[in-house]
Design brief:
single chain; 403 residues; alpha/beta; Aspartate Aminotransferase, domain 2; Aspartate Aminotransferase, domain 1; 2 domains; four-stranded mixed β-sheet; 14 helices; 11 strands; 12% strand; binds pyridoxal-5'-phosphate
């Protein structure tokens, strides 16, 4: 970077999101980081490659663990999150799986909030127990619920905030304080917020996870994941998780595209939040809308006090349901003209889905058990995009009137 942007101030979030991590002197002054499409690296002498393999010389050895385009992205994300280090993955689930399988062992216990992204739920319910890892689901909306389940075997406490798909907010500092006192590692999936709105490490988390697929890339054209935090733990995820446990390496092309996405992250999150706030208020006051509209920055939301402590603003994610139940929800979704019926979130396009209906196929056990975990069937998840707020309000209103 060409010197500080503001006299006596550290560069702000937007400045770092555009500049941090890329040294143009090694790239002939290119404005934009090059894409290194290479699977391996050649050495002048055998001794050099041996020194790299032994960790005595810092240079990439093989593309499954390192790539220069990825390294720029990792440096930038670590800076934005306030983390010592970052490792990126081929998808968000690549990050979740690599994290759990690298840091947990047979006999360990992991406490997981009762509601998490459906495939994280599948991993913890179906896969981890097969490896002798005990999963303890707990309602962390009251952090005191942790106390009776924490034991010497508790290795990790894992949760999302805001939670997918409910948008409920969990109190990071209160949960982390209890978990740390018991010697457990605290991992927060912060995908719903991005570092522009929330930085869990500042509130006591050891590691933060993101599906880069969502807000951080923001353009719906790739999959990616990241884990950030303590340098030794991140190194373990790279040297064990990436190298030989999952091999879930992000492609250099995707790393390049995510870098492009980071530049507008702050701007996008501001707009997502402004429009989502208006939509949440409209829904909360609409006669066809049944249960509580969940949006962290509605003062009536139970998560509002914690959201104000740990988030700068709301993102584009909210959940709600209609008085007319499942059938009404499907009629409502079918009437939408601008809002798209699609899974995923965090894109420029506004997307809607009904997780309770889609979960049925994805999960092994009785759907009622999952739905009891905080996701009732009529609940819809809305990912508010970047279209004009008036156009979205019009589309949602006309669809509500007919449902
Ligand atoms: C909160 C959260 N974590 C992790 C993931 C997994 O990310 P990916 O789809 O990139 O594997 C998702 C995907 O929707 C998510 O919403």
């Amino acid at each position: 970077m060409n010197g500080p942007a503001r006299r006596n101030h550290a560069p702000g979030f937007a400045t770092r999101a555009i500049h941090h991590g890329f040294d143009r002197t090694g790239a002939q002054g290119a404005l934009i980081p090059p894409i290194y499409m290479t699977s391996t690296y050649a050495f002048e002498h055998a001794a050099e490659s041996e020194a790299v393999a032994a960790g005595e010389l810092l240079r990439p050895l093989y593309g499954r663990e390192e790539n220069p385009t990825q390294s720029v992205l990792e440096a930038r994300l670590a800076n934005l999150e306030g983390a010592e280090a970052c490792v990126v993955f081929a998808s968000g689930m690549g990050a979740v799986g690599s994290l759990m399988l690298s840091l947990l062992s047979q006999g360990d216990e992991v406490v997981v909030h009762r509601t998490v992204y459906s495939n994280t739920l599948a991993l913890t319910e179906d896969a981890l127990p097969r490896f002798g890892i005990k999963v303890v689901p707990v309602d962390l909306s009251d952090p005191a619920n942790l106390d009776p389940v924490l034991s010497r075997a508790t290795r990790m406490v894992y949760f999302e905030t805001p939670v997918n798909p409910t948008a409920e907010v969990l109190d990071i500092a209160a949960i982390a304080g209890r978990a740390r006192a018991a010697g457990a590692m605290v991992v927060v999936d912060s995908t719903y917020a991005s570092p522009a709105l929330q930085r869990p490490l500042e509130h006591g988390a050891h590691l933060v996870l993101h599906a880069l697929t969502k807000y951080i890339n923001g353009h719906g054209d790739l999959l990616g994941g990241a884990v950030l935090g303590d340098a030794a733990m991140v190194e373990r995820l790279r040297r064990h998780g990436l190298r030989y446990i999952t091999g879930a390496t992000m492609s250099p092309m995707s790393a390049f595209l995510v870098l492009r996405g980071t530049k507008t992250l702050g701007l996008r999150m501001e707009r997502h939040g402004q429009t989502a706030q208006r939509i949440a208020e409209m829904l909360a006051g609409h006669g066809a809308v049944a249960r509580r509209v969940r949006y962290p920055f509605l003062p009536s939301d139970p998560g509002y006090p914690a959201a104000r402590r740990q988030m700068a603003n709301g993102s584009g994610m909210l959940s709600f349901s209609l008085l007319s139940g499942n059938d009404g929800a499907d009629r409502f979704m079918d009437r939408l003209r601008l809002v798209l019926r699609a899974v995923s979130l965090g894109d420029a396009e506004t997307l809607i889905m009904r997780p309770g209906a889609l979960l049925r196929g994805a999960l092994r056990a009785d759907p009622a058990a999952h739905l009891a975990g905080g996701v009732d069937e009529p609940t819809m998840r809305l990912s508010v995009g970047l279209e004009d707020a008036e156009d979205l309000l019009d589309d949602l209103s006309q669809a509500l009137d007919g449902a």
